[in-house]
Amino acid sequence: MATSKPDIKALVGQMPDSDKPGETSKFTGPDPGKAEDIYAGILSGGRDSLLELIAVLRDPNDPSPKDFRAEYVLHGLAIYVGRPEKKQQRKMFAETLALQLGNPKVPIAVQEFLIRELQVAGGAEVVKALGKMLANEQLCEAAAQALIAIGDGAAKQLRSALSKAKGRCRVTIVQNLGVVRDASSARVLRKCLSDPNSDMRLAAAWALARIGDSGSVALLLKTADVEPGWERIKATQACLLLAENLAAKRKKRDAAKIYTHLRDSRTDPKERYVRDVAEKRLTAIG
After folding, report:
1. 255 near 244, Cβ under 8 Å?
2. 35, 191, 200, 277: which has the fewest C-beta neighbours closer than 10 Å?
3. Does CATH number 1.25.10 belong to domain 187-286?
4. pLDDT tens across 29-61, in order?
5. Where are the domains of the chain?
6. Cβ pair 252, 217 in contact under 8 A
7. Cα-atom radius of gyration of the chain, to the nearest Å?
C-alpha cells in the first residue's frame, strides 16, 4: 500500500506560533514527543519533503512578515537526525541540504542558514560542497566553521581553496588552516607573511604559530619587528605562541631563539612584559 505524501506546510504549522507584538515572551518550543512526530513525518517523505521544507524557508532580508517555524523545524531535524540510530537519515538530510549550495534559486541568506545546519548534522559526504563555498564572500565564514566542526577532510578543502580565494575569504581560510594545524600548508602560509594586507600577514603568523612550524621562526620574528602598534603586538603574540608550541615539541633550540630575540629587542618600557615573559620561558626550558 502506497504511503501518502506528508503535508509539509501542515506539519510546520503544528509548531507553536510566535509571540504577538507586546506580549511577554512565552515560547518554549513544542512538546518533545509532538516535535519528534513532526520530524519523523517529514523524513518519511525523503528528499522531496526536505526540498519542500527548504523551499518555504524565509529570507531574513525579506521585509514581509516573518514566520520562523520552518527554520525551527529544519534546525530540529538537524539535531534529530544526529542520533546514532538515524545514520542513514542524517546522511540523506545532509546531502539534500548540500545540493542547494550554489543554487541561484536559493537566496544567499537561506544558503548560509543551510550551512549552519550542516555544521550540526553534516559529515564527510558534504565536505566537497562546503569547500566550494569557501570562495564565496558571503558564505566563506559559515562554510569554514562547518568544515571545522565536521573535521574529516576539512584541511584538504581549506588548502585547496586557498589558491583561488581573494579578500576576506583568503584571510578566513588562512586562519582556519591554523585552527586545524595543517602542517602541509606551512610553505604557502610563510609566503602570506609578506602579503600587502596586514590582516593576511597576522592571520598567517597566527596559523604558523598554531602549527608550530620551526621553519617560520626567522620570518615570524621579522614580521614582529615592525613599528610600534597593533601589528607589532599581535605578531609578537604569534612569536610567543610559536615558541610555546616548539618547546612542547621538544624543539627547545628554536624556541630559545625566539625568546632570546624578544628579550633582547623589546627595549621600550612599554614592552617590558614581553621581556619578562621571554626571560621566564628561557629559564623554564633551560
Report:
1. yes
2. 191
3. yes
4. 678 889 999 999 999 999 999 999 999 998 877
5. 187-286
6. no
7. 25
